[in-house]
Specification:
alpha+beta; 11-stranded mixed beta sheet; 10-stranded mixed beta sheet; binds 2-acetamido-2-deoxy-beta-D-glucopyranose; transmembrane helix
């Protein structure tokens, strides 16, 4: 009862604000990112090439907590066409807080791709060209130089490679995973696949120079994402085990191990609007919808865009587009703050994520330091969830 009252009040307010529709911004800001929660990793899979036996089992709940959690874990970087990637860079900093130079240290680049010079430092291009499985979907494979074919070993994309609607590739680091295994760093994955770590750390920054030209092929019902380009981040376990499973237990995604969409066109009506979205359970129940910015970044279909996302040390996550983005080996803390501060307030859309209080039980720890009891917040959890979804709206 209480829940439905809260819901109806919120829905009214949503309509009031929503009447004008979402607007275009250069910067999409999220605050209070990170919470204590759990997800389930895949423990094992069996009979994976046989339609009748293909099955996955998940393990016990694993707790995470802290700033940016669970996105403080290793993340892989995903691209969907129509898209050309000109540059990609990954940075870490010992500590960085948005709009606070004094408590911020410089960023150092630990992975870099440049299309024109075919530079690929600490970058491995993969795609879904591997062996098919009825419950896991296709395994990972090395991408060939056009991004969509497969190769027998790591291959740098050809300059100016354009992938079309629905086509995807992924960037992982070049650091090899340990053997497949539940509780090991890279989790359970199929034998024979290229398995690398993604890009880890609480405080991190991903930068991109890219084009998202309008699709030139005709639309058809066989194209799932027609003219809907995207750049997004996943917990690096997801694609390694199964990015598109038919059984939700074949991936940690459904239990909330983490996705952040940096620039994503959502549907044909808004194909030139790039939204940022958290697919984590930080105060929501519907992971598929996630926590989306109520504003978007405009897709430039004729020019090159530069920008990316900063995950700072204080729970601020900022997606931005700026021609001032630079890709040097070091980018000073001042330079990043200056770039972000140069984007005016009226070009900034801010949302605050919900505070979730859950504490991992101190008993029954396993050797991996993760303990295993359900979060039982009952009704309050639902009420908080409803509020969170709308916190964004109030902050316009
Ligand atoms: C695989 O099994 C599922 C249900 O078990 C069934 O719906 C599907 O048609 C089967 N596919 C093939 C190719 O046999
Ligand atoms: C510090 O950050 C601001 C933006 O937050 C920037 O404008 C300024 O130039 C930076 N540098 C110094 C030395 O204050
Ligand atoms: C990974 O990339 C780094 C940076 O480019 C390079 O120094 C190193 O040799 C690469 N390692 C492997 C195994 O390719
Ligand atoms: C991409 O390369 C593969 C070989 O790696 C080839 O089979 C495929 O036809 C190419 N795709 C396009 C669109 O050229
Ligand atoms: C490559 O990236 C990984 C993952 O973030 C990192 O641990 C490693 O230090 C990087 N390698 C180099 C040479 O920077
Ligand atoms: C997933 O696993 C849970 C228990 O771990 C089980 O109850 C559920 O039926 C499984 N789902 C599928 C689709 O197999
Ligand atoms: C398209 O996506 C936007 C952003 O998620 C959403 O607000 C809008 O309702 C969607 N439109 C349609 C027709 O689905
Ligand atoms: C492409 O076609 C699908 C239906 O098959 C439709 O939902 C979508 O809006 C279309 N996209 C564009 C950009 O027209
Ligand atoms: C798109 O980029 C081109 C080239 O940089 C620029 O001239 C144009 O103004 C941009 N369009 C929009 C809508 O920002």
């Amino acid at each position: 009862m209480l829940q439905s009252i809260v819901l109806s009040v919120c829905v009214c307010l949503l309509h009031t604000v929503a009447a004008s529709g979402p607007q275009s911004y250069q910067k999409l800001d999220f605050t209070n990112v990170g919470f204590a929660g759990t997800y389930n990793s895949v423990k094992k899979f069996t009979g994976i090439t046989n339609n009748d036996t293909c099955n996955c089992e998940v393990g016990d709940k694993e707790w995470f907590s802290g700033v940016n959690a669970p996105l403080a874990e290793y993340l892989s970087v995903h691209f969907r066409g129509p898209l050309k990637l000109k540059q990609f860079a990954f940075y870490t900093s010992p500590g960085f807080t948005v709009s606070n130079n004094r408590s911020s240290s410089d960023w150092s680049r630990s992975a870099y791709y440049d299309s024109s010079s075919k530079t690929a430092n600490n970058v491995t291009f993969l795609n879904h060209g591997g062996e098919a499985s009825p419950c896991l979907g296709n395994a990972l494979s090395y991408a060939s130089s056009n991004g969509t074919g497969t190769a027998s070993d790591a291959t740098v994309l050809a300059d100016d490679t354009l992938i079309s609607s629905d086509e995807e590739y992924i960037i992982y680091s070049n650091v090899s995973c340990p053997k497949s295994g539940y509780g090991k760093d890279c989790g359970v994955y199929r034998s024979g696949i290229p398995a690398y770590y993604g890009f880890g750390g609480t405080t991190k920054m991903f930068l991109f120079e890219f084009e998202m030209p309008t699709e030139t092929e005709k639309n058809s019902s066989s194209i799932g994402y027609y003219d809907l380009p995207a750049i997004w981040l996943l917990n690096d376990h997801i694609a390694r085990t199964s990015q598109y499973p038919t059984n939700a237990n074949c991936s940690c995604w459904a239990s909330g191990c983490g996705e952040y969409d940096i620039f994503e066109a959502m549907n044909g009506t808004e194909k030139n609007h790039l939204y940022s979205t958290f697919h984590t359970f930080q105060g929501i129940e519907d992971l598929g919808t996630g926590i989306q910015s109520y504003g978007y970044i405009a897709r430039n279909t004729t020019g090159t865009m530069k920008g990316g996302v900063v995950f700072d040390s204080s729970g601020n996550v900022v997606s931005f587009i700026s021609d001032d983005t630079t890709f040097g080996q070091t980018v000073s803390a001042d330079a990043v703050n200056e770039l972000l501060a140069a984007i005016p307030q009226d070009e900034t859309y801010s949302s605050q994520l919900m505070s979730i209080s859950a504490t991992a039980p101190t008993t029954s720890s396993k050797s991996n330091g993760i303990s295993l009891t359900k979060m039982q917040n009952g009704v309050w959890y639902y009420i908080m969830a409803i509020f969170t979804a709308f916190t964004q709206v109030f902050l316009i």
